Amino acid sequence: MARPDKAAAVAELTDKFRSSNAAVLTEYRGLTVAQLKTLRRSLGENAQYAVVKNTLTKIAANEAGITLDDQLFAGPTAVAFVTGDPVESAKGLRDFAKDNPNLVIKGGVLDGKALSADEIKKLADLESREVLLSKLAGALKGKQSQAASVFQALPSKLVRTVDALRAKQAEQGGAE
User: In this predicted model, what pLDDT tens digit does every residue of 28-48 receive, in sequence order?
Assistant: First the structure.
């Protein structure tokens, strides 16, 4: 029978997996407490970084309906549970790992889909959600402006054509 403290820890981790948009598993071996504190700050307000027990985390992930590779649970593990923009947190992890090579990104989960370490690095290379939305809005606005110009040109061209026909008729009528 499971001990109550372990059952509570599994329940808490399961809730975190279910309520998070993403979770990134890392190895933190060799990092100091001060470095871990800096890492937690660099992840932003929408992420929690927690040192976890591998067995309990694996059980919690399974209970949350997430299948993770057993290789992710080798060595000491910490998980960044992301409730906001996963790109921001992935960038924080990537940038921190550049300065501190002891932090190793093992893999993770995004919206229930397992991600490799390389996929998390690609996620970190994306621009933030706000930037992507503003680019989309700009592109849509540009297309609307082009469409408005085309629609405005059609009546204008029609008026010029009618005026030219009247002028031609007036010339031919005036010549007779």
Answer: 888 888 888 888 888 878 888
- The residues that bridge with 108 in the sheet, in sequence order, are 24, 115
For the chain, the residue count is 176
**Using CA of residue 43, residue 47, residue 49, residue 53, what is the dihedral sign?**
negative
Amino acid identity, residue 168?
Answer: K
pLDDT score recorded for residue 175: 54
By CB atoms closer than 10 A (0-12, 13-18, 19+), residue 126 is middle
Are 84 and 128 in contact by the 8 Å Cβ rule? The answer is: no
DSSP string, 71-119: GGGSSSEEEEEESS-HHHHHHHHHHHHHH-TT-EEEEEEETTEEEEHHH
Phi, psi angle pair for 24, to nearest 5°:
-120, 125
- In the chain, what is the straight-line distance between the N-terminal and C-terminal CA atoms, in Å? 112
> What are the tokens at 136?
């989309």
Average pLDDT, the chain: 82
pTM: predicted TM-score of the whole model, two decimal places: 0.67
